[in-house]
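> forwarded from #structure-qc
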């Protein structure tokens, strides 16, 4: 069986994030055709768990990073992950294909001895151009054009490019990169939530150390008084790690910041719907996919839903008024919420049983 070596920016055995959830899903599907190996950056490089090749994750030294960026004429994010340790690990690994999970991990591959002799596949995961422009202040806006240039350069060096967003795949095809595939992935069905037995509780999921989630959290807190007005027992629960660098915000009445919950299945059985007012979209949409796999209704913006609107039938609501009205309707009408949840669970389960996600990954990694 041919070998496929995935290049990851995080350690899948010791970290848990949305992009790692999707990377693990993709690797599981790739195992149908490949002997899958992993080279990853890790805070525990001495670990031998799962047999992964681990490279020590370096702390960012801003002055050095800026110097290397200027010298190499590369964006900051692509410079940061172009590490000698990754290059050496790639040089020492025999593989029939290398798979960069995030475009910037194509940089150490292109500097390795394997470049030009072993195929490179790229999963863009998320457009860093959009994220940096929207959430990294002046530096992000200034560097976004260089990031886009780097993303296109790496993509042109790959034999195949995968994206989690249909419009993004179209962008690469329009740029002359014909083998750009939309990876229309969904998660396997999980235990269906008991929406019929839920309380008037909405939930927001997200690691707020990721700037788009912190932005959405702050937006939702501002909208909550309008959502809850006149509904005495309405409740909004925030689940996920906070951003330690963010300025503390006083929570409105009816809002609880839970951080992590011990029994997620039991907690979600008390929830009426997921709310995701994401404004900076693209890439990984694990919170939406997880809700669909459980049959939990979703109220979200177009940026939060993206291409999943056509896959799962979840409408992206562009205006505050529409989101507020949809949240209020579900809080007040448990029967409607139950119907929406059942429909979502069936849609997700059906496409998984038909192996739609598996086919998508197989077509992306198929030999040129």
């Amino acid at each position: 069986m041919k070998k496929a070596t995935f290049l990851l920016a995080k350690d899948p055995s010791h970290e848990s994030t949305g992009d790692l959830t999707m990377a693990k899903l993709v690797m599981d599907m790739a195992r149908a055709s490949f002997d899958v190996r992993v080279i990853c950056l890790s805070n525990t490089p001495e670990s031998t768990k799962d047999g992964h090749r681990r490279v020590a994750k370096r702390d960012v030294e801003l002055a050095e990073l800026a110097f290397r960026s200027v010298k190499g004429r590369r964006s900051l994010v692509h410079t940061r992950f172009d590490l000698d340790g990754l290059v050496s690990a790639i040089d020492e690994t025999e593989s029939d294909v290398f798979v960069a999970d995030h475009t910037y991990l194509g940089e150490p591959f292109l500097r390795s001895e394997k470049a030009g002799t072993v195929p490179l596949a790229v999963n863009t995961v998320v457009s860093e151009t959009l994220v940096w422009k929207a959430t990294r202040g002046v530096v992000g806006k200034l560097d976004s054009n260089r990031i886009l240039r780097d993303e296109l350069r790496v993509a042109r060096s790959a034999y195949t490019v995968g994206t989690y967003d249909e419009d993004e795949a179209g962008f690469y095809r329009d740029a002359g990169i014909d083998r750009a595939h939309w990876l229309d992935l969904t998660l396997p069905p999980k235990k269906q939530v008991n929406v019929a037995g839920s309380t008037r509780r909405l939930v927001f999921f997200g690691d707020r150390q990721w700037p788009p989630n912190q932005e959405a959290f702050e937006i939702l807190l501002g909208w909550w008084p309008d959502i809850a007005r006149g509904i005495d027992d309405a409740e909004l629960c925030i689940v996920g790690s906070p951003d330690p660098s963010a300025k503390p915000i006083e929570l409105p009445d009816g809002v609880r910041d839970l951080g992590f919950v011990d029994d997620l299945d039991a907690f979600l059985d008390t929830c009426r719907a997921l709310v995701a007012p994401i404004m900076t979209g693209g890439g990984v949409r694990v919170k939406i996919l997880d809700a669909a796999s459980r049959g939990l209704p979703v109220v979200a913006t177009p940026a939060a839903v993206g291409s999943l609107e056509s896959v799962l039938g979840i409408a992206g609501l562009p205006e505050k008024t529409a989101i507020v009205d949809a949240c209020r309707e579900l809080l007040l009408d448990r029967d409607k919420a139950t119907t929406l949840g059942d429909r979502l669970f069936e849609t997700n389960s059906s496409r998984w049983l038909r192996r739609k996600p598996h086919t998508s990954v197989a077509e992306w990694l198929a030999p040129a």
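QC bot note: The CA atoms of residues 8 and 223 lie 37 Å apart. The first strand starts at residue 3 and ends at 8.
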